Amino acid sequence: MEKFRLPKITMPVLPLPPSVQKVLTEAESKLAHRPKLLQLFKNCFPNTLETTTKCLDDGTTFVITGDIPALWLRDSVEQVIHYVPLAKYDPELQAIISGLIKRHIFYVLIDPYANAFNETANDWHWNANDVTYMSPWVWERKFELDSLCFVIRLAHMYWKETGLTDFLDAGFKSAIRSIVDLFKTEQRHQELSPYRFQRNSGVAGDSLRNEGLGMPVNYTGMIWSGFRSSDDACDFHYNVPANMFAVVTLRQMQDFAEWVFRDLDLLAELKELEQEVQRGIELYGIYRHPEFGPIYAYETDGFGNYCLMDDAGTPGLMSIPYLGYTSIDDEIYQNTRRFALSKQNPFYYEGAVAKGIGSPHTPEQYIWHMALSMQGLTAQSKEEKLEMISLLEQTDGGTGYMHEGFHADDPKIFTRNWFAWSNSLFSQLVYKAMEEEIL
Protein backbone atom coordinates (compact mmCIF):
# COMPACT_ATOMS: atom_id res chain seq x y z
CA MET A 1 0.00 0.00 0.00
CA GLU A 2 1.36 3.40 -0.98
CA LYS A 3 -0.19 5.99 1.29
CA PHE A 4 0.43 9.71 0.78
CA ARG A 5 2.89 11.22 3.26
CA LEU A 6 1.18 14.23 4.76
CA PRO A 7 3.25 17.39 4.42
CA LYS A 8 3.39 20.06 7.06
CA ILE A 9 0.20 21.98 6.34
CA THR A 10 0.15 25.77 6.38
CA MET A 11 -2.69 27.90 5.08
CA PRO A 12 -2.82 31.68 4.66
CA VAL A 13 -4.61 33.44 7.50
CA LEU A 14 -7.62 35.25 6.08
CA PRO A 15 -8.68 38.56 7.60
CA LEU A 16 -11.96 37.92 9.36
CA PRO A 17 -14.97 39.40 7.53
CA PRO A 18 -16.81 42.16 9.45
CA SER A 19 -19.86 39.98 10.21
CA VAL A 20 -17.67 37.32 11.82
CA GLN A 21 -15.86 39.93 13.89
CA LYS A 22 -19.25 41.25 15.01
CA VAL A 23 -20.30 37.82 16.30
CA LEU A 24 -17.07 37.51 18.29
CA THR A 25 -17.66 40.95 19.80
CA GLU A 26 -21.21 39.95 20.67
CA ALA A 27 -19.89 36.84 22.41
CA GLU A 28 -17.63 38.95 24.62
CA SER A 29 -20.70 40.31 26.39
CA LYS A 30 -23.10 37.36 26.14
CA LEU A 31 -20.57 34.80 27.39
CA ALA A 32 -18.62 37.01 29.79
CA HIS A 33 -19.96 35.03 32.77
CA ARG A 34 -18.48 31.79 31.33
CA PRO A 35 -14.87 32.60 30.49
CA LYS A 36 -13.87 29.11 29.36
CA LEU A 37 -16.88 28.79 27.04
CA LEU A 38 -16.13 32.25 25.69
CA GLN A 39 -12.55 31.28 24.89
CA LEU A 40 -13.66 28.04 23.24
CA PHE A 41 -16.14 29.97 21.09
CA LYS A 42 -13.54 32.60 20.16
CA ASN A 43 -11.18 29.79 19.12
CA CYS A 44 -13.70 27.64 17.27
CA PHE A 45 -16.06 30.07 15.54
CA PRO A 46 -13.40 31.61 13.24
CA ASN A 47 -11.27 28.44 13.03
CA THR A 48 -12.28 27.49 9.48
CA LEU A 49 -11.41 30.94 8.14
CA GLU A 50 -8.22 31.29 10.16
CA THR A 51 -6.70 27.88 9.47
CA THR A 52 -8.32 25.99 6.57
CA THR A 53 -9.49 28.48 3.93
CA LYS A 54 -7.68 29.77 0.86
CA CYS A 55 -9.09 32.20 -1.71
CA LEU A 56 -7.70 31.26 -5.10
CA ASP A 57 -6.83 33.50 -8.05
CA ASP A 58 -9.71 32.15 -10.14
CA GLY A 59 -12.31 33.45 -7.67
CA THR A 60 -12.97 30.08 -6.06
CA THR A 61 -12.30 29.00 -2.47
CA PHE A 62 -10.39 25.93 -1.29
CA VAL A 63 -11.14 24.62 2.21
CA ILE A 64 -9.09 21.78 3.69
CA THR A 65 -10.59 19.56 6.38
CA GLY A 66 -7.83 20.41 8.88
CA ASP A 67 -4.94 18.01 9.32
CA ILE A 68 -5.23 16.63 5.73
CA PRO A 69 -4.36 18.86 2.73
CA ALA A 70 -7.53 18.02 0.77
CA LEU A 71 -11.05 19.40 0.40
CA TRP A 72 -13.85 17.04 1.38
CA LEU A 73 -17.15 18.06 -0.24
CA ARG A 74 -19.07 17.21 2.94
CA ASP A 75 -16.64 18.60 5.51
CA SER A 76 -16.04 21.88 3.68
CA VAL A 77 -19.78 22.63 3.66
CA GLU A 78 -20.21 21.98 7.37
CA GLN A 79 -17.05 23.94 8.10
CA VAL A 80 -18.64 27.13 6.69
CA ILE A 81 -22.36 26.53 7.24
CA HIS A 82 -22.43 28.60 10.44
CA TYR A 83 -21.25 31.64 8.46
CA VAL A 84 -24.04 31.53 5.86
CA PRO A 85 -26.66 33.38 7.98
CA LEU A 86 -24.13 36.23 8.33
CA ALA A 87 -23.44 36.66 4.61
CA LYS A 88 -26.39 38.75 3.41
CA TYR A 89 -24.75 42.11 4.14
CA ASP A 90 -21.09 41.07 4.08
CA PRO A 91 -19.47 41.09 0.60
CA GLU A 92 -16.22 39.63 1.98
CA LEU A 93 -18.02 36.60 3.35
CA GLN A 94 -20.10 36.32 0.18
CA ALA A 95 -16.94 36.04 -1.89
CA ILE A 96 -15.61 33.24 0.31
CA ILE A 97 -18.82 31.18 0.37
CA SER A 98 -19.79 31.67 -3.29
CA GLY A 99 -16.20 30.84 -4.19
CA LEU A 100 -16.51 27.54 -2.33
CA ILE A 101 -19.76 26.73 -4.13
CA LYS A 102 -18.07 27.39 -7.48
CA ARG A 103 -15.19 25.15 -6.45
CA HIS A 104 -17.62 22.38 -5.53
CA ILE A 105 -19.29 22.59 -8.93
CA PHE A 106 -15.90 22.40 -10.64
CA TYR A 107 -15.11 19.21 -8.74
CA VAL A 108 -18.52 17.57 -9.25
CA LEU A 109 -18.15 18.04 -12.99
CA ILE A 110 -14.74 16.34 -12.83
CA ASP A 111 -15.97 13.28 -10.91
CA PRO A 112 -19.31 13.08 -9.06
CA TYR A 113 -18.24 9.82 -7.39
CA ALA A 114 -15.26 11.34 -5.55
CA ASN A 115 -15.48 12.54 -1.96
CA ALA A 116 -12.27 14.59 -1.63
CA PHE A 117 -10.18 16.69 -4.00
CA ASN A 118 -6.81 18.40 -4.41
CA GLU A 119 -6.21 22.12 -4.78
CA THR A 120 -4.47 21.51 -8.12
CA ALA A 121 -4.17 18.56 -10.50
CA ASN A 122 -1.11 17.42 -8.56
CA ASP A 123 -2.01 13.70 -8.59
CA TRP A 124 -1.89 13.46 -4.79
CA HIS A 125 -3.98 10.59 -3.42
CA TRP A 126 -4.67 9.20 0.05
CA ASN A 127 -3.73 5.81 -1.39
CA ALA A 128 -2.04 5.66 -4.77
CA ASN A 129 -2.97 1.99 -5.21
CA ASP A 130 -6.76 2.29 -4.94
CA VAL A 131 -8.46 0.16 -7.59
CA THR A 132 -10.86 2.65 -9.15
CA TYR A 133 -10.78 5.37 -11.78
CA MET A 134 -8.63 8.26 -10.50
CA SER A 135 -8.20 11.80 -11.77
CA PRO A 136 -5.14 13.87 -10.78
CA TRP A 137 -7.64 16.25 -9.13
CA VAL A 138 -9.03 13.51 -6.87
CA TRP A 139 -7.58 12.91 -3.41
CA GLU A 140 -9.97 10.05 -2.61
CA ARG A 141 -12.76 8.36 -4.57
CA LYS A 142 -15.01 6.81 -1.96
CA PHE A 143 -18.58 7.33 -3.19
CA GLU A 144 -20.57 8.77 -0.30
CA LEU A 145 -24.09 9.78 -1.31
CA ASP A 146 -24.13 12.58 1.24
CA SER A 147 -21.21 14.39 -0.42
CA LEU A 148 -23.33 15.50 -3.37
CA CYS A 149 -26.20 16.40 -1.06
CA PHE A 150 -23.96 18.73 0.93
CA VAL A 151 -22.95 20.57 -2.26
CA ILE A 152 -26.60 21.40 -2.94
CA ARG A 153 -27.27 22.15 0.74
CA LEU A 154 -24.71 24.95 0.82
CA ALA A 155 -25.79 26.44 -2.50
CA HIS A 156 -29.48 26.40 -1.56
CA MET A 157 -28.94 27.87 1.91
CA TYR A 158 -26.67 30.59 0.56
CA TRP A 159 -29.19 31.49 -2.18
CA LYS A 160 -32.07 31.63 0.32
CA GLU A 161 -30.10 33.70 2.84
CA THR A 162 -28.63 36.24 0.41
CA GLY A 163 -30.92 36.21 -2.63
CA LEU A 164 -27.80 36.15 -4.83
CA THR A 165 -27.87 34.11 -8.04
CA ASP A 166 -24.59 34.94 -9.78
CA PHE A 167 -23.23 31.44 -9.06
CA LEU A 168 -26.33 29.73 -10.50
CA ASP A 169 -24.98 29.53 -14.04
CA ALA A 170 -24.86 26.93 -16.81
CA GLY A 171 -22.11 25.04 -14.96
CA PHE A 172 -24.31 24.78 -11.87
CA LYS A 173 -27.18 23.40 -13.94
CA SER A 174 -24.79 20.89 -15.53
CA ALA A 175 -23.80 19.75 -12.05
CA ILE A 176 -27.46 19.22 -11.16
CA ARG A 177 -27.79 17.11 -14.31
CA SER A 178 -24.75 15.08 -13.33
CA ILE A 179 -26.10 14.52 -9.80
CA VAL A 180 -29.54 13.46 -11.04
CA ASP A 181 -28.03 11.04 -13.55
CA LEU A 182 -25.83 9.52 -10.85
CA PHE A 183 -28.78 9.18 -8.44
CA LYS A 184 -30.76 7.32 -11.10
CA THR A 185 -27.83 5.05 -11.96
CA GLU A 186 -27.24 4.20 -8.30
CA GLN A 187 -30.89 3.31 -7.76
CA ARG A 188 -29.92 0.25 -9.80
CA HIS A 189 -26.31 -0.07 -8.77
CA GLN A 190 -25.91 -3.78 -9.48
CA GLU A 191 -27.13 -3.46 -13.07
CA LEU A 192 -26.03 0.01 -14.19
CA SER A 193 -23.20 1.44 -12.11
CA PRO A 194 -19.66 1.86 -13.45
CA TYR A 195 -18.38 2.54 -9.93
CA ARG A 196 -15.96 0.14 -8.26
CA PHE A 197 -13.63 0.70 -5.32
CA GLN A 198 -11.02 -1.52 -3.68
CA ARG A 199 -8.19 -0.70 -1.29
CA ASN A 200 -5.70 -3.23 -0.05
CA SER A 201 -5.08 -1.55 3.31
CA GLY A 202 -5.94 -4.40 5.64
CA VAL A 203 -8.79 -2.29 7.06
CA ALA A 204 -12.17 -3.87 6.32
CA GLY A 205 -14.03 -0.55 6.23
CA ASP A 206 -11.68 0.89 3.61
CA SER A 207 -12.75 -1.32 0.71
CA LEU A 208 -15.89 -2.64 -1.00
CA ARG A 209 -16.37 -6.39 -1.16
CA ASN A 210 -17.49 -8.39 -4.20
CA GLU A 211 -14.54 -7.18 -6.34
CA GLY A 212 -15.29 -3.54 -5.56
CA LEU A 213 -18.98 -3.71 -6.47
CA GLY A 214 -20.24 -3.97 -2.90
CA MET A 215 -22.59 -6.51 -1.35
CA PRO A 216 -25.79 -7.34 -3.28
CA VAL A 217 -28.84 -5.11 -2.86
CA ASN A 218 -32.47 -5.33 -3.93
CA TYR A 219 -34.16 -2.51 -5.83
CA THR A 220 -36.03 -0.27 -3.37
CA GLY A 221 -36.18 3.16 -5.01
CA MET A 222 -33.47 4.36 -2.64
CA ILE A 223 -29.98 5.36 -3.83
CA TRP A 224 -26.95 3.12 -3.27
CA SER A 225 -23.92 4.46 -1.41
CA GLY A 226 -20.53 2.80 -1.12
CA PHE A 227 -19.42 4.56 2.05
CA ARG A 228 -20.79 6.35 5.08
CA SER A 229 -20.13 9.93 6.15
CA SER A 230 -17.33 8.52 8.32
CA ASP A 231 -15.58 7.32 5.12
CA ASP A 232 -16.17 3.71 6.26
CA ALA A 233 -17.77 1.18 3.91
CA CYS A 234 -21.48 0.53 4.35
CA ASP A 235 -22.54 -2.85 5.69
CA PHE A 236 -25.77 -2.67 3.66
CA HIS A 237 -25.60 -0.12 0.89
CA TYR A 238 -28.85 1.78 1.30
CA ASN A 239 -27.78 4.23 4.00
CA VAL A 240 -31.10 5.53 5.29
CA PRO A 241 -30.04 8.96 6.68
CA ALA A 242 -28.15 9.63 3.43
CA ASN A 243 -31.28 8.80 1.45
CA MET A 244 -33.32 11.13 3.68
CA PHE A 245 -30.73 13.79 2.87
CA ALA A 246 -31.17 12.96 -0.84
CA VAL A 247 -34.92 13.57 -0.54
CA VAL A 248 -34.18 17.04 0.91
CA THR A 249 -31.62 17.64 -1.84
CA LEU A 250 -34.09 16.72 -4.56
CA ARG A 251 -36.56 19.22 -3.10
CA GLN A 252 -33.89 21.90 -3.08
CA MET A 253 -32.95 21.15 -6.68
CA GLN A 254 -36.64 21.51 -7.54
CA ASP A 255 -36.44 25.07 -6.22
CA PHE A 256 -33.54 25.78 -8.56
CA ALA A 257 -35.33 24.15 -11.51
CA GLU A 258 -38.56 26.08 -10.92
CA TRP A 259 -37.43 29.51 -9.77
CA VAL A 260 -33.98 29.97 -11.29
CA PHE A 261 -33.72 27.86 -14.44
CA ARG A 262 -37.48 27.77 -15.26
CA ASP A 263 -37.08 24.21 -16.51
CA LEU A 264 -40.39 22.41 -16.05
CA ASP A 265 -39.14 19.12 -17.51
CA LEU A 266 -36.29 19.02 -14.99
CA LEU A 267 -38.73 19.98 -12.24
CA ALA A 268 -41.02 17.04 -13.09
CA GLU A 269 -38.05 14.66 -13.25
CA LEU A 270 -36.84 15.76 -9.82
CA LYS A 271 -40.30 15.40 -8.27
CA GLU A 272 -40.65 11.85 -9.60
CA LEU A 273 -37.21 10.88 -8.32
CA GLU A 274 -37.95 12.39 -4.90
CA GLN A 275 -41.14 10.32 -4.64
CA GLU A 276 -39.26 7.13 -5.56
CA VAL A 277 -36.61 7.65 -2.88
CA GLN A 278 -39.18 8.70 -0.28
CA ARG A 279 -41.30 5.62 -0.97
CA GLY A 280 -38.21 3.45 -0.60
CA ILE A 281 -37.47 4.93 2.83
CA GLU A 282 -41.05 4.36 3.96
CA LEU A 283 -41.18 0.75 2.73
CA TYR A 284 -37.66 -0.45 3.52
CA GLY A 285 -36.06 2.03 5.93
CA ILE A 286 -38.27 1.59 9.00
CA TYR A 287 -37.62 -1.21 11.51
CA ARG A 288 -40.17 -2.33 14.14
CA HIS A 289 -38.02 -2.40 17.26
CA PRO A 290 -39.36 -4.49 20.20
CA GLU A 291 -38.38 -1.83 22.76
CA PHE A 292 -38.57 1.52 20.95
CA GLY A 293 -41.32 0.87 18.38
CA PRO A 294 -40.88 1.91 14.75
CA ILE A 295 -37.43 3.43 14.23
CA TYR A 296 -35.36 4.35 11.20
CA ALA A 297 -32.66 1.83 10.40
CA TYR A 298 -29.17 3.10 9.72
CA GLU A 299 -28.76 0.86 6.66
CA THR A 300 -30.63 -1.85 4.78
CA ASP A 301 -30.04 -3.93 1.66
CA GLY A 302 -33.69 -4.19 0.60
CA PHE A 303 -33.68 -7.93 1.28
CA GLY A 304 -34.87 -7.57 4.88
CA ASN A 305 -31.45 -7.15 6.49
CA TYR A 306 -30.84 -4.10 8.69
CA CYS A 307 -27.94 -2.34 10.34
CA LEU A 308 -29.27 -0.93 13.61
CA MET A 309 -26.87 1.70 14.94
CA ASP A 310 -26.06 5.37 14.74
CA ASP A 311 -22.76 6.99 13.86
CA ALA A 312 -21.51 10.37 15.06
CA GLY A 313 -21.07 11.67 11.51
CA THR A 314 -23.59 13.73 9.57
CA PRO A 315 -25.83 12.50 8.05
CA GLY A 316 -26.75 10.15 10.83
CA LEU A 317 -30.02 9.26 12.51
CA MET A 318 -29.56 11.98 15.16
CA SER A 319 -29.21 14.64 12.45
CA ILE A 320 -32.45 13.87 10.55
CA PRO A 321 -34.24 17.14 11.55
CA TYR A 322 -31.00 19.13 11.24
CA LEU A 323 -30.92 18.13 7.57
CA GLY A 324 -34.53 19.22 7.08
CA TYR A 325 -36.08 15.80 6.43
CA THR A 326 -38.57 15.86 9.30
CA SER A 327 -39.38 17.84 12.42
CA ILE A 328 -37.77 17.31 15.81
CA ASP A 329 -41.09 16.17 17.32
CA ASP A 330 -41.77 13.52 14.65
CA GLU A 331 -42.75 10.30 16.45
CA ILE A 332 -40.51 7.91 14.51
CA TYR A 333 -37.58 10.32 14.85
CA GLN A 334 -38.10 10.53 18.60
CA ASN A 335 -38.21 6.73 18.82
CA THR A 336 -35.03 6.59 16.75
CA ARG A 337 -33.35 9.20 18.92
CA ARG A 338 -34.11 7.22 22.08
CA PHE A 339 -32.60 4.15 20.43
CA ALA A 340 -29.48 6.05 19.31
CA LEU A 341 -28.91 7.36 22.83
CA SER A 342 -29.21 3.94 24.43
CA LYS A 343 -26.95 0.95 24.83
CA GLN A 344 -28.98 -0.74 22.09
CA ASN A 345 -26.87 1.43 19.76
CA PRO A 346 -23.53 -0.43 19.61
CA PHE A 347 -21.67 2.88 19.27
CA TYR A 348 -23.20 4.64 22.26
CA TYR A 349 -20.76 4.84 25.14
CA GLU A 350 -20.88 5.88 28.78
CA GLY A 351 -17.81 6.63 30.83
CA ALA A 352 -16.58 8.43 33.94
CA VAL A 353 -16.82 11.92 32.39
CA ALA A 354 -19.16 11.68 29.42
CA LYS A 355 -21.80 9.71 27.55
CA GLY A 356 -22.69 9.95 23.89
CA ILE A 357 -22.34 8.50 20.41
CA GLY A 358 -19.08 7.43 18.83
CA SER A 359 -18.27 5.62 15.61
CA PRO A 360 -16.79 2.42 14.19
CA HIS A 361 -14.28 4.83 12.62
CA THR A 362 -12.62 5.36 16.02
CA PRO A 363 -11.86 2.98 18.94
CA GLU A 364 -14.43 1.77 21.45
CA GLN A 365 -15.36 4.18 24.26
CA TYR A 366 -14.49 7.20 22.11
CA ILE A 367 -17.33 9.74 22.03
CA TRP A 368 -17.39 12.32 19.25
CA HIS A 369 -17.71 16.02 19.96
CA MET A 370 -19.74 16.30 16.75
CA ALA A 371 -22.30 13.85 18.15
CA LEU A 372 -22.68 15.95 21.31
CA SER A 373 -23.05 19.13 19.25
CA MET A 374 -25.67 17.47 17.03
CA GLN A 375 -27.53 16.18 20.08
CA GLY A 376 -27.71 19.77 21.30
CA LEU A 377 -28.78 21.15 17.92
CA THR A 378 -31.64 18.64 17.69
CA ALA A 379 -32.73 18.77 21.34
CA GLN A 380 -36.35 19.64 22.17
CA SER A 381 -35.57 21.28 25.51
CA LYS A 382 -33.25 24.08 26.49
CA GLU A 383 -32.08 21.92 29.39
CA GLU A 384 -30.67 19.30 27.02
CA LYS A 385 -29.04 21.97 24.87
CA LEU A 386 -27.36 23.47 27.92
CA GLU A 387 -26.30 20.03 29.12
CA MET A 388 -24.56 19.36 25.80
CA ILE A 389 -22.83 22.75 25.81
CA SER A 390 -21.53 22.12 29.32
CA LEU A 391 -20.32 18.65 28.34
CA LEU A 392 -18.51 20.02 25.30
CA GLU A 393 -16.98 22.76 27.44
CA GLN A 394 -15.65 20.18 29.89
CA THR A 395 -14.18 17.76 27.35
CA ASP A 396 -11.82 19.83 25.19
CA GLY A 397 -8.88 18.11 26.86
CA GLY A 398 -7.41 21.47 27.83
CA THR A 399 -6.70 22.36 24.19
CA GLY A 400 -9.29 25.08 23.62
CA TYR A 401 -10.73 23.24 20.58
CA MET A 402 -13.04 20.38 19.69
CA HIS A 403 -11.73 17.07 18.39
CA GLU A 404 -12.97 13.97 16.60
CA GLY A 405 -13.32 11.31 19.29
CA PHE A 406 -12.30 11.48 22.95
CA HIS A 407 -12.20 8.73 25.57
CA ALA A 408 -15.32 8.63 27.71
CA ASP A 409 -13.14 8.32 30.84
CA ASP A 410 -10.48 10.90 29.92
CA PRO A 411 -11.00 13.76 27.41
CA LYS A 412 -7.24 14.33 27.26
CA ILE A 413 -7.08 11.17 25.16
CA PHE A 414 -8.49 12.12 21.77
CA THR A 415 -8.17 11.76 17.99
CA ARG A 416 -7.49 14.62 15.56
CA ASN A 417 -6.00 17.69 17.18
CA TRP A 418 -7.13 19.83 14.23
CA PHE A 419 -10.62 19.03 12.93
CA ALA A 420 -12.38 22.15 11.70
CA TRP A 421 -15.78 20.53 11.08
CA SER A 422 -16.06 19.68 14.77
CA ASN A 423 -15.11 23.23 15.75
CA SER A 424 -17.76 24.64 13.38
CA LEU A 425 -20.58 22.40 14.60
CA PHE A 426 -19.80 23.32 18.21
CA SER A 427 -19.79 27.00 17.22
CA GLN A 428 -23.16 26.60 15.52
CA LEU A 429 -24.69 25.16 18.69
CA VAL A 430 -23.29 27.87 20.97
CA TYR A 431 -24.26 30.69 18.59
CA LYS A 432 -27.83 29.39 18.34
CA ALA A 433 -27.97 29.25 22.14
CA MET A 434 -26.73 32.83 22.24
CA GLU A 435 -29.46 33.88 19.80
CA GLU A 436 -32.10 32.05 21.84
CA GLU A 437 -30.75 33.77 24.98
CA ILE A 438 -30.63 30.54 26.97
CA LEU A 439 -26.97 30.75 28.05
From TrEMBL:
Protein origin, superkingdom: Bacteria
Transmembrane segments: none
InterPro entries: 6-hairpin_glycosidase_sf, 6hp_glycosidase-like_sf, GH125
Recorded coiled-coil stretches: none
The name this protein goes by in its record: Meiotically up-regulated gene 157 (Mug157) protein
Species of origin: Paenibacillus turicensis
Taxonomic lineage of the native organism: Bacteria, Bacillati, Bacillota, Bacilli, Bacillales
